[in-house]
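Tutorial handout. Part one gives the primary structure; part two gives the three-dimensional structure as tokens.
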Amino acid sequence: MRAFVLTGPGESRVLEVDPPVAGPGQVVVDIARVGVCGTDAEVFSGEMEYLHNGLASYPLRLGHEWCGTVSAVGEGVDPSWVGRRTTGDTQLGCGRCHRCRSGRQHVCEDRHEIGLRRGFDGALAEQMAVPVSALLALPDSVDDAAGALVEPGGNALRAVRAAEVGRGERLLVIGPGTIGLLAARIAMAQGCEVHVLGVTPSSLAFATDLGVSGSWRFEDLPDLRWDAVIDASNHPSSPALAAQLVDAGRRLVYIGLSETPSLIDTRVLAMKDLTAVGVLSASPGLAGAIDLYASGAVDPRPLVAATLCLDDVDGVLRGHRPQHAGPGPKIHVDPRARRQT
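Part two.
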């Protein structure tokens, strides 16, 4: 089968590799769609922390936002999975530690992460082997484009839940990327007034087209009461800004990661009686994201700018945007497609 393989920092190839075999407790999934995200770009550039602390190494296969159809099952797996459309959890805990036993496998110290951590091959390939315990079935009402957005949608849903912002209250989302915009759509579906803070005119215009109440650059941000703030950006100054902006006694949610450490004055947190929540991974939000998509309450598909093939991934990771791409922030890949000549 064909797979996109990182061979070193800034180096990649599409290779013919042996197809996966479903081991005990595993299935093989024929991959239909994969999302490319900022974390993949960090691994490609060599800046990803896992590459420096021994939790990842080249060669490496990326791809953790995925959906597909089960084509084979291993020993101990219900054969009825064959032919079912699915997506799955990225975080694969050891299943033995106290965190896994209490439902927190996404922060297991010994976890694998699909396409990222401890050498677990990702979904930027025609097929992938994955534990059946990680699977979530997709209803027919969730197509492939939406299915590959369940993982970022789970992250966004967790951020909105952590913000504890209610109907008629005002939410500020810093960072109009995929997770930020999905958080905005989820909060709007719950009856919140949502505003987005960003940098580029094109991203702010796209947020406006999605129906947010306001899209602002910092110098234009109105002096309003922000009942909660979600920081989904990657700028090191955003966490402190969020703490300054949010109303006293309310909540901050930090889901974005900057390349350098972010400084927060904890005196602001204490004096404003704020609750700050960090969100790592979509795991506890995946089923909820599927439900939101399946019901039609949230449609994530406008965020997809283009669907490419494996041969195009190198260019995407280098920051090249396809000429035919739409205004959304997300690039999808169909691993079975071939580049048009």
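Part three, for discussion. The radius of gyration is 20 Å. The mean pLDDT is 97.
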